[in-house]
User: Which sequence fits this backbone?
């Protein structure tokens, strides 16, 4: 059983977790901090049929795209590298890409 580390001023939705099994992660981080290590949100303000997203996650993430109306949109994903991808759509749009 992991050792409990009492904390003050810690958001109860993001408790401190034991990261001994994750050598690349600092030893005392919250689950919210871990999420930020493995996810990225890209906001595309200018309308375009092609979005280039530099995420620096170090892996090829799953992608969910939402247009400016909040609807999920399908497109073509090209993983340029483990840190960048290109999204291609049949029409120009702005919106948000959630990567994880």
Assistant:
């Amino acid at each position: 059983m992991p050792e409990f580390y009492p904390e003050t001023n810690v958001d109860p939705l993001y408790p401190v977790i034991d990261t001994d099994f994750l050598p690349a992660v600092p030893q005392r981080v919250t689950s919210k901090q871990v999420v930020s290590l493995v996810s990225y949100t890209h906001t595309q303000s200018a309308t375009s049929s092609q979005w280039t997203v530099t995420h620096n996650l170090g892996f090829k993430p799953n992608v969910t795209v939402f247009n400016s109306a909040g609807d999920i949109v399908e497109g073509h994903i090209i993983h340029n590298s483990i840190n960048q991808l290109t999204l291609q759509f049949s029409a120009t749009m702005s919106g948000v890409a959630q990567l994880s």
